[in-house]
Structure formats: structure tokens, C-alpha cells
## 1
Amino acid sequence: MPLRDPGLLKEANLVGGQWIAAGDNAIAVTNPATGAVLGRVPSLGAAEAEAAIEAARDAQIGWAAKTAKERSVILRRWYELVVENADDLAEILTLEQGKPLAEARGEILYGASFIEWFAEEARRVYGDVIPGHQADKRIVVIKQPVGVVAAITPWNFPNAMITRKVAPALAAGCSIVLKPASQTPFSAIALAVLAERAGLPAGLFSVVTGSARAIGAVMTGSQIVRKLTFTGSTEIGIELMRQCAPTVKKLALELGGNAPFIVFDDADLDAAVEGAIISKFRNNGQTCVCANRLYVQAGVYDAFAQKLAEALSKLKVGNGLEESTVFGPLIDDAAVAKVEEHIADAMGKGASLVSGGKRHALGGTFFEPTVLTGVTGTMAIAREETFGPVAPLFRFKEDSEVVAAANDTEFGLASYFYTKDLARAWKVGEALEYGMVGINTGLISTAEAPFGGVKLSGLGREGSRYGIEEFTEMKYLCFGGI
Ligand code: ADP
């Protein structure tokens, strides 16, 4: 379907308020469902990243001086434009990322909800008045924007991972330079087009596509940039953290996960199957909060495996633009290779296939939704994030055993469990070493709640009232001689 507004698929970058068109060495962006080239974006590098950062520094001063209400009004207008253009934005997202159109539309509205939320929160950045330690003194704490922010985002949520960073940064009075993933830059550029239309002053939000290494080096090394916010792999997150050390930047890192999904004997099994499908198979298993290890208690293990396989068999794999598609293609060949590796490793060590297990007849990067039973802790799938449509089922007997197994990972982002027992819900919820716990639900992300992880899953929280705090510094003012 042609876009209602072709201007949203823009083959250019917004750098310091100027649009730079894709030149000769542009990056081709392909549709993972067909392999067709969708368009080209500029291949920029260090010089443009520097220019964007300098423009961000200059623009930020005036932006921070505006009232919160003035910033809020522009953000609100941006939110409205995103919602008004949701169909086009969803189509662009599906074309470059592959997820089904309905899911893409869901992401656009979810992404927009962060702009809406932070437009509101902009006006609620409160400080403190603290009773003084001496009779003639008063202690006041104010919150000020950190200044220039750099953001690096991944391909799995080409819209929402951006709004979740850009909206709170702008709301707090910061400016921001973004490097989106090269696989999915058009969604990011479309957001910049709409931000400009919403009246966001030039220079506050730049999008720079190109060499991750070159742009990342400038962002992390810059004295002007005071905060780096990154969503992506733990490996790159650690590298960026190291690069940020000499300039002592504030850091927000949303890194990998290895989410456990636990089904206790007393769970509502149908609800657990539904939750598992949402949590494990959303975006074809390509989210950092996707269930990676499904622990099922012995009494319901076989029934759960059967119900899950049966439910999956009814869901269609196909091009995301087709109405009834639930599972699109994987992002690229490397993603398919990892899924195949994990399945082969598990099967080689004694796991059994209940359904799926191989590339889909559609070819390309399409893969069959897969259920494996007899999975144990010795298999690679127990340790590493698969990031694909494979549900490995581990069998357990005792609560303490499953909590220990669930926590036996270097990651700590999302976790899930299903039970009807209130005491168990509290105890297990408290014992899981994760930033987020879904209890009787497989879907936990929302603008109102703090999203983030512990251990190697990262630093900081996004969304919620805490999400804006991350873009502020507190300043202590000591009033004497009173
Ligand atoms: P994924 O496996 O999700 O692609 P990555 O961590 O490789 O995760 O990529 C996430 C984002 O980080 C992308 O925008 C990518 O271009 C960027 N990136 C990758 N390597 C580097 C690097 N060395 N410096 C800065 N950014 C990088």
C-alpha cells in the first residue's frame, strides 16, 4: 500500500537542523521479508556526529530555559503527529524490520505513549527542600537537565526504543543526538520529520546514520555529551561503557536478557500458554524481554508442551504486510544461524522437538515457531539469549529449585511466572533477581512503569516517573545567613 505521506520515508539525516541527503556511498536498507531494497540512508561518520553534537550544545541552552509547559506543548504536538501518521509509520516499520503490520502499529502507539507520558512528566520534575543542619541555613535541591545526550538504538523496536529515550531527554530540557541501527533507520528518520513538523527547535534532535564505530567513538569520547543512553547487546554496552569512562558520562544501558518464564502446577494453564506466546514469540522472539527459558513444573509439563505447540500451529508465518501474519521473518541470516545453532546444540544433548525446528518453507529468514522439551541447564540455550522463535521447556519439581535455576544467569532484565497462590507470588517475585517480574502476565512494558535490568542487563530505568530523572542532575543549593 502506498504511504499516505511519502515524505515520511526520507532518504536523509537531520543533522543540527539541516537535512543531509543520502549520497553515493549511501547505506541500502532492505526488507527482510523479500530482500528488496527499500531505500538508502546517508553513511555519515565522525564529522557529522561532531556537528550534530555542537548544534545540540547550542540549541540546548535555549531549550532548557523554556518553561516545562512550553516544552510539553511541543512534545504533545509531536505525540499527536505520530498518532495521526501511525498507519504510515507502521508500514515503514514493517517494511524495514519485518514484524507484522498489526504488531508494528502496536509499536508505533506504544512508542507514541512515551512521548505523551513524558510531555506530561516534563511538568513534574520536582526538587526538595530539606531542613537545614544549622539554624541559619536552608537546603534546597533542584533538578536540572544533564545537557547534551547521545543515544544508540537497536533494530528490534525501531520506533519505541527511540521515543523512550528522546522524549524524556527533551522533556527534561536536554538535547539529543541519535544513531539508530542501520537495519532500521527509516523509522527513526520519520520520527525526526514529525518532530520538526511539531515545531521542535533546530538542533535539539539529530539523527545520524552510518558507521557505528565512528559515530559511537565521537559520542562516547565527546566532552560535550554528558550522557549516553544505549539499547543493544551486552557486549557492545560494555565496550561503550569503557569508552565513556575517560569523560565520566552518565550511562543508561538496556542490554541483553535471558528471561525465565515459570509455570507452576497451580497456574491457569491456558493463561500461561497465552502469556508464553506473547512473551516468547512477540516480534518472533526478538526482544530483550522475550522469555528465553520456560520452566514448567512436572505436574503440568506435558500438558503445557502440548497446548503450546497446538496454539502455535494455528498462527501464520509470513510477510508482515499480509493481514493474518503473526510471525514475520527474522531480521537477518545471522539471526537464523543462531536459532539453528541453539536447536542443534539442544537436540545433540538430548532435547526433543515437539513442533517446528527448521527454516520455514517460505525461505529467506522465515523460521518455524519451535517447541523443545527435555531441555537442561547444560545446553547453550540455557545460557545465551536465542533471540528467535524457540521455546525450550525445562522441567522442575520444587520452588526453590526453579528460583535458583532462574537466577543462575549473568542477566537480570525480565522474568515471568504463573501461579494462583498469593504467598508463592510474593515469595518468588521477591526472590527473582530481575529488574522486572511479570506475574500471571507475559506483557509488562508500558510507559507508566520503570523498564530496566540488573546485573549484565544494564543500568538505569526507562519510562515511568523515574525515566525523566535519568536525564537530570540534582544540584544542592545551600542558603546561609538566614
Ligand atoms: P544487536 O545485536 O541488537 O544489533 P548491537 O549491540 O550490535 O545489538 O547494536 C545495537 C546498536 O549499537 C546498533 O545501533 C549498532 O549499530 C550499534 N553499535 C554496534 N557496535 C557499535 C560500536 N562499536 N559503537 C557504537 N555503536 C555500536
## 2
Amino acid sequence: ISAEKGGFKHFMLKEIFEQPRTVGDTIKGYISRDYILPFKLREFRRIILLACGTSYHAGLVGSYWISKYLQVPVEVMYASEFRYADIPVDDRDLVIAISQSGETADTRYSALSAKERGATVISLVNVMGSALDRESDYTLYTHAGPEIGVAATKTFTSQLAVLYSLSVSQLPNRDEYMEKLSAVPNMMEEVLGNAENVKKVALKYTNKKNMLYLGRYLSYPVALEGALKLKEISYIHAEGYPAGEMKHGPIALIDENMPVVVVAPKDRVYEKTLSNIEEVLTRKGIVISVGFAGDERLKSMSKDFIGIPSVDEDLSPFLTVIPLQLFAYYIADHLGLDVDQPRNLAKTVTVE
Ligand code: G6P
């Protein structure tokens, strides 16, 4: 077993560290034009992304890319919600069903119901031959290799790689975008090189009962994913929220005992996120931030700061999510918890 873990203490840690390679492998698959779809993505009246759990967070990130690059109206829904809501769907719609396992019941059945009503269904799965792979019209694979840790990590970043590739795939300057994407794995390696620092930070917060995760734009889904990781494996209550929405509720929770993890790369909403940090500081919240290395302004506002390399704003989720995965991992491991097999959770949920 320890050989399978490649010297790592847990599969989850191994899988976190595999990400530069798995994202690289995924990108390779999409750089060639082999997978070209026989239709124009822009011709659909709407693109609907359906998923559960971590795959849903990848879908949320993807939705920003799809609106920006394809200019097609996009919706993202939890598969379990889509299925029982009266969402009008017909042959003018494209559904992208995202599922690592390809077996999640909610995702499968919601995709099937959209297909029955005439929608075109693309699935995005990591397991070839899985139910969703067979049931969809087209499949895009994530090439992350088997993921053993129950909490998804490397499949998330591979899903991002496919969603980004897909969003730019039919643009005239696609190659430029793919070139930018190809630089990501090396940057992810750099982020991982800083793991010991993330561990040091994480170990200061192992006795907390609650944490808040904030981000805006593409860092909003990353905040949700960071909070989910913490909940799943450390059993610490964590809530992810769009930073701008904090003032409409969660701000009431902030006091000197509340750690607030803020994802703040220098992107279009950077200044806005900094004002949100000010609001946290006014209420004496403890700010832990993830931002560009050398960002002294952000650093000066934070109790703890984790630096990542500067990156094109649209590619930041590939990097910002890694410290959050590690942060959750080191806390859970310190607490002596079963990181790879957290209580009450299953890797694949085949019941509705
Ligand atoms: C389970 C797993 C999660 C995963 C979710 C969706 O809840 O514990 O890690 O994100 O299912 O799985 P899928 O295979 O559909 O991506």
C-alpha cells in the first residue's frame, strides 16, 4: 500500500502533488485537435453545466470561461436540483455533465432527462467506460488517472483544464490560449514547492471550529472548493462565500476567533477583494490570504499569507486551489483523521 502511495502518507497528498503532471497530461490531450466537436458551441441558445460536489465547483469556474470566451448564456446547477426543477430544456441546449467517476446517480439521471428532451449532452469524466461516458452523446476525458482519496483534488484541476480547453476550442486564436494554459503545470509545481509553508500556516488553525472562505470572480468557486475540502476531511465547519456577498450575512459571524481564508490573486476584482478584507479586519477577523508572491499590500493585511506565482487572471484557479487543498490536508492529518476515507463520505455516490 505504501508503495502505491509513492512515499506519501496518504493518497490525497500524493494526488495533490500529481497535479502538475495530470493537468499536463490532460492539456496534451486537448492541444491536438482530435477531439473537435461536430457542432459550433456558439450556436446553442444556452449551455447548462450539471454536476455534484467538487465537480460542481469545476463547473462554476467553467461557467465564467464559457460566458467570457463563447458568449453563450450559461447556467450551472447541482444535478440533484436540476432534476426536480422545471427547467425548460430542448434541442437548442447543450448540457455538459461533469463527473469524475461518471457514476454519480444525480448527474447521470439529470443528463439523461435533458437528453430525452432533445438536448445534446457532453460528459466530462475521468473513468472511461463509466455509465455517463456511455450515456452521453460525446465524452471529454480528464486523463487524471485513478483518484483514490475520497476528497477530489487532481480530478478537479483536470476538469478545469478540459473546461478551459473547451471554452477556447473554437476561437480563432485558440492556440494562444492553449499556449498560456500549457504554462500552468510548471507554475503548479512552484506552488507545491511551497507546501511546507502552507503546512506551517495550517498547523496554527487546527483548533478552530469554524472558518470562512471568500473569493470573487474565479476565486469564488475556489473558495467554495477550499471550504468543501476542509469540511470533508477535517470535519471543521467551513463556509465558502462570494466575498462581495459577505456583507449580506456572513459578516455577522466575524469576530477575533474567526479565520477568514481569502483568495485574492491580482485580477479584475483584486481591489474589491481588498475592500472586503478591510471589512473583515474591522470586525477583528483573522485573515489568511492566498495571493501573488510579493504582494506586500495583501501581505500587510493578512495574519498569514501564502504566495503563488503571478498568473493570467483566468488561469488563477489552477494555482489558488492548491494551497487550499494542502491547508485542509495538513489540518486533517494533524488531527489524526482518516484523510483518504473520511467518515460518512463515499468516493462515488450511486444513490439519488
Ligand atoms: C462524492 C465525492 C466527492 C465528489 C462527488 C461528485 O460526494 O466524495 O469528492 O466531488 O461525489 O463525484 P463525481 O464522481 O460525480 O465527480
